[in-house]
Specification:
It is a single chain. This protein is of the alpha+beta class. 32% of the residues lie in helices and 25% in strands. It is built from 17 helices and 35 strands. Strands 1-6-7-8-9-16-13-12-11 form a nine-stranded antiparallel beta sheet, with helices on both faces. The chain is globular. Keywords: Hydrolase. Pfam families: Glyco_hyd_65N_2, Glyco_hydro_95_C, Glyco_hydro_95_cat. It comes from Paenibacillus plantarum.
């Protein structure tokens, strides 16, 4: 079997079935997801469809909010934190408080008959080069093989079962959704179905499974598919809900009928070609062949987790590629965006309802999208922001008396935007839409697509900014601040011991608005529209609080230099200006960069970075500070402390944002482009002395390939999508050539500058 399985940097593989859900292997096509356990006699494939959410949309804006808003602000300016919190909870919190959860579609179970002998040569893998899961084993001299994938072009999960001796496949298959079963039954002589609903006003769903055999027979007995004496079988599974389809069962039948037009080889080829069109855009090699490449993934991970000093660069390389795989598998055009668990959730009451948490987690899911050349995977987020605008306008108007649109720290299937929850540390935080909107600006920065800016990005940015034009209020010191708001999800302590979360003008709010107004000003300038708005936002921008340095040498989290209840808090919100924002830079603002480093060290000294996604954010922030050793330390920490055996990120429990944040962090270590220049190997750790990466994307339409040795850049290839001035930061003295001709460059300190033409490629060599 050895030749069939790919290089260990491109697969997860194991020598035993999964015992737990976080050991199962994920497949997905953005809309449909499956978790494959790999059991021999009774296989379980846990199923998800991205629109299976409990309950329907609600109009829960507190009717008493707008008349109490001014009073709450006055209390906060006067330091009456407890009174303001009490009134805010009653007047601004929603009615009802919580959004409903994202839920499983159900389970597909395969019961194999006649495979009770000793199992030999067992192996299961997730081949992330081809997005295919495989299980193989031998029983009583017969070799069995299962191949499973979720096809985007054919909108179905395909399961191929084979054996190497004729007629040895005997099994039954069933669909169920315990404990919330709907209806199940026979659809045809070779198909079964399952349907149901997700609570009052909730979506209705359907799922269909069809069997196609080579040899043997297929029949339906009760609500089971029964296959007897087959040599190979292809199972086609489709699912749909009323979120998209008026008749989900008919939609499933159409998907399966369309997929049936292709034979097994064609289905697999269509799937691989579609997937590789995205996955193959980036390659990464951090180390040569390693003896650890011969270890199964779980053994390799356990070796890291049991030895504090052991490092596994090959595993880190796999982890990077796995993050790209997971994004492609959970976020494709026409689908919903990746939620807290991507699309993979086995619980009807999942942690944090498996929502879209937009005070960092959803945003982190999309940090790898542009830098890894996966702009298409960003589209579901943009679609969802547009879905949120309808609710967001109502929330802005009815709760705050403002124009524009606003969202708080969570949203859901329906794009709801009202404050959600019961905890003052997070509920009233009106920055969700603003931060999300910056993702459209980021796509423009990477693609330089003015049609996208004009038609899609700028209208959303402008409407997000319009809310703050109305919402900002003058503080006693004359600055313009937000509030009531929080610094997610932290608590400060006043001198008299009073603890509070609600405040006016937390640092993160001002930093997000700085990026939002700047994006609007630059968009307006690029498109040559809205001159008056540009002037208005420029004037407001000048009155926002700037990042301030506190008594510990840290970036202040609030307007005042309050003590923190938890100095090691998992959120490091005051460093938004460092990452993903752009206000803090080691080259442009060295004093603030030094304070940002002090902020990180203070958090870490007090136990910070203890959750998976928080560690991932820290990787990115140290990379922005050009501290590759610390970035690498925290990548190692994630694998040691925050990673399950299937390489899912552990918050704990499972949250997918850590996977995505780590993948983005590895790119930030190798290449950055946020400061108006391409910075090559800005945070290369000593543990990666040589390597190569290709296909990374930089802002202004650049594609970058890099090679390095002995810890220094050896060569780079820059492809320019547009014409203009290219600025490159690199420690080494370099030559630039295009088409074999040396290019004239200007050099100032560590930055070179030269002119590029659209469609041309530039080679950079170490002198």
């Amino acid at each position: 079997m050895g030749g069939v399985f790919l290089n260990n940097r491109e697969k997860l593989w194991y020598l035993q079935p999964a015992k737990l859900w976080v050991e199962a292997l994920p497949i997905g096509n953005g809309r449909l997801g499956g978790m494959i356990f790999g059991h021999v006699q009774e296989e379980r494939i846990q199923l998800n469809e991205d629109s299976i959410w409990y309950g329907g949309p609600k109009d829960g804006i507190n009717p008493d909010g707008s008349r109490h808003l001014e009073g709450i602000r006055e209390m906060l300016f006067e330091g009456k934190v407890e009174e303001a919190t009490r009134l805010t909870r009653m007047a601004l919190f929603s009615t009802p408080k919580y959004y409903n959860p994202y839920q499983p579609l159900g389970d597909l179970r395969l019961y194999f008959h006649g495979q009770k002998g000793e199992v030999e040569d067992y192996r299961r893998e997730l081949d992330i080069k081809n997005a295919i899961a495989r299980t193989s084993y031998k029983v009583d001299g017969v070799s069995y093989r299962r191949t499973m994938y979720a096809s985007y072009p054919d909108q179905a999960i395909i399961i191929r079962l084979t054996c190497d001796q004729p007629g040895q496949l005997n099994f039954s298959a069933n669909l169920n959704r315990r404990p919330y079963e709907g209806e199940t039954g026979r659809l045809s002589a070779d198909s079964i179905w399952m349907s149901g609903e997700c609570g009052k006003h909730g979506v209705e769903y359907a799922c269909v499974l069809k069997a196609k055999t080579e040899g043997g027979t297929v029949s339906v007995i009760g609500d089971f598919l029964s296959v007897e004496g087959a040599s190979s079988v292809t199972l086609l599974l489709a699912a749909a809900s009323t979120f998209r389809e008026s008749d989900p069962l008919a939609a499933c039948q159409l998907h399966i009928a369309a997929a049936e037009q292709f034979n097994t080889e064609e289905l697999e080829r269509r799937h691989i070609q579609d997937y590789q069109r995205l996955f193959n855009r980036v390659s990464l090699q951090l180390t040569e062949q390693d003896p650890l490449d011969d270890l199964a993934t779980d053994e390799r991970l356990k070796l890291m987790q049991e030895s504090h000093s052991h490092m596994d660069t090959g595993l880190m390389e796999l982890y990077f590629h796995y993050g790209r795989y997971l994004l492609i598998a959970s976020s494709r055009p026409g689908c919903l965006p990746a939620n807290l668990q991507g699309i993979w959730n086995d619980s009807f009451t999942p942690p944090w309802e498996s929502k879209y948490t937009i005070n960092i987690n959803t945003q982190m899911n999309y940090w790898p999208a542009e830098v890894c050349g996966l702009s298409e995977c960003h589209e579901p987020l943009f679609d969802h922001i547009e879905r949120m605008q309808v609710s967001g306008r109502q929330t802005a108007r009815d709760l705050y008396g403002c124009s524009g649109f606003v969202a708080h720290h969570n949203t859901n299937l329906w794009g709801e935007t009202r404050p959600e929850g019961l905890f003052p540390t997070c509920v009233i935080w009106p920055m969700g839409a603003a931060w999300l909107s910056l993702h459209l600006w980021e796509q423009f920065l990477f693609t330089a697509d003015k049609d996208f800016l004009r038609g899609r990005a700028y209208p959303i940015l402008k409407e997000a900014a319009a809310f703050f034009v109305d919402y900002l209020v003058e503080a006693p010191n004359g600055q313009l601040v937000t509030g009531p708001s929080v610094s997610p999800e932290n608590v400060y302590v006043l001198e008299d011991g009073t603890r509070g979360a609600l405040t006016m003008g937390p640092a993160m709010d001002s930093q997000i608005i700085h990026e939002l107004f700047t994006a609007c000003i630059q968009s307006s300038d690029q498109l040559q529209v809205d001159g008056e708005l540009r002037e208005q936002l420029t004037a407001l921008l000048a009155r926002l609080p700037k990042p301030q340095i506190g008594g510990h040498g840290q970036i202040m989290e609030w307007l005042e230099d309050y003590a923190e209840e938890d100095p090691g808090h998992r959120h490091i919100s005051q460093l938004f200006a460092l990452h993903p924002g752009t206000q803090i830079s080691p080259h442009r603002t060295p004093e603030l960069a030094e304070a940002a480093a002090a902020t990180l060290q203070r958090r870490l000294a007090n136990g910070g970075g203890h959750t998976g996604w928080s560690s991932a954010w820290i990787v990115n922030m140290f990379a922005r500070l050009e501290d590759g050793e610390q970035s690498h330390t925290h990548l190692n920490h994630m694998l040691r402390k925050s990673t399950y055996l299937n390489l899912f990120d552990a918050h704990p429990p499972f949250q997918i944002d850590g996977n995505f944040g780590a993948t983005a962090g590895i790119v930030e270590m190798l290449m950055q482009s946020h400061a108006g220049e391409l910075s090559l190997l800005p945070a290369l750790p000593s543990a990666w002395p040589q390597g190569a990466v290709s296909g990374l994307r930089g802002r202004n339409g650049y594609t970058i390939d890099l090679k390095w040795s002995d810890g220094e850049l050896s060569e780079a290839v820059i492809h320019a999508a547009g014409s203009g001035t290219c600025r490159i930061r690199t420690r080494e003295a370099v030559l630039v050539r295009s088409g074999g001709v040396d290019i004239l460059v200007n050099r100032e300190h560590s930055v070179i500058e030269f002119q590029v033409e659209a469609g041309c490629t530039y080679e950079i060599f170490r002198k």
